[in-house]
Design brief:
Oligomer: single chain
CATH topology of the largest domain: Pyrimidine Nucleoside Phosphorylase, Chain A, domain 2
CATH superfamily of the largest domain: Nucleoside phosphorylase/phosphoribosyltransferase catalytic domain
Shape: globular
Order of helices and strands: HHHHEHEHEHHHHEHEEEHHH
């Protein structure tokens, strides 16, 4: 079956085109993932949606199709943590140490992703061991070669598509709680609405560094999402009075040395503990953001193990 009927729905022209319903979007993406759609039609559909802007129903339908296409391949987890930042502006992935603190608190963390066009110092895969053994990482190309190919159409289009959003929504471990970082703030509400349509009850979304779930410790951070199925918006107050950028070029942080206390960097530590606090609050490990900050700082103070630097 062709996806041409779905392209016609969204691309008929002014006054005639309309958004896809959730079932229509799910059917269209199912055909794409099954390899039953012509590449020209895929490009047409994705680029029309990019120009017009996706709806929550379309994102939810595409995500539902991906979940159905790839199911039961990951162990159960308490927290879903997508990592799909791209670009050369990223610095060291401090959020991996935040994930380690969350795991230290007793939660199973599942990270999945793909990170392109990044320097070695920003590579999630090269630093994933620092997240510790209780944090799992699965690369996109292993989870779903079909979704990986769709994401890489960015190199053909020269533009991102809604696949970037769908992958953040995916939650392949079926965890009850998800955290998502976005680069463009306008997507925070879209993703929360789509998650609600999919039955997700607990979700936290921030504008994070390079699109990762990683907070800036010197700025107030708006946290969108769902809590017990209700739409919420919280403001996480700045933790430091420091005007530097989250990732200053030429000032990389050695994550291993930071974890072991070999280097002292208040800004980097606040990034780690502040990010972990937002996750712990989403997991309801702490009743308030202030309590979550206290908890994450306590976890940092007793972080374990004081291993050798080769660990």
């Amino acid at each position: 079956m062709s996806i041409a009927p779905f392209v016609r729905i969204v691309a008929r022209g002014a006054g005639r085109a309309r958004p896809l319903t959730l079932p229509e979007a799910q059917e269209a993406m199912s055909l794409i993932l099954q390899g039953e759609a012509a590449p020209e039609a895929i490009g047409a559909l994705l680029m029309v949606l990019r120009m017009r802007g996706e709806t929550p129903e379309e994102i939810a339908g595409f995500t539902a199709a991906l979940r159905h296409h790839v199911s039961g391949t990951l162990a159960a987890a308490d927290l879903d943590w997508p990592s799909y930042a791209a670009g050369r502006s990223r610095g060291a992935p401090l959020f991996l140490l935040a994930a380690r603190l969350v795991a230290q608190a007793g939660y199973r963390v599942s990270i999945h992703g793909w990170n392109s066009h990044q320097a070695s110092s920003a590579s999630v895969r090269e630093a994933i061991d620092l997240a510790g053994p209780a944090v799992s990482y699965t690369p996109l190309e292993t989870l779903s070669p079909a979704a990986f190919n769709l994401l890489n159409l960015r190199d053909t289009f020269g533009l991102r598509s809604c696949i970037n959003t769908v992958l953040r929504m995916w939650n392949p471990s079926q965890a009850p709680v998800s955290v998502q970082g976005v680069f463009h703030p306008s997507y925070r509400g879209l993703q929360a609405q789509a998650a609600n349509l999919l039955g997700q009850r607990d979700l936290a979304i921030i504008k994070g560094g390079g699109g990762e779930f990683e907070r800036h410790p010197s700025k107030d951070v708006a946290v969108f999402g769902l809590r017990d199925g209700a739409h919420v918006k919280h403001t996480a107050a700045a933790l430091l009075d420091d005007k530097r950028r989250l990732h200053e070029q030429g000032s990389g942080v050695d994550l291993r040395s930071l974890w072991h206390g070999v280097i002292d960097d208040d800004f980097a530590v606040a990034t780690v503990t502040g990010t972990a606090a937002l996750v712990l609050f989403a997991l309801k490990a702490a009743p308030t953001l202030d309590d979550a900050n206290h908890m994450s700082r306590a976890l940092w103070a007793v972080r374990r193990p004081p291993e050798s630097l080769s660990a």
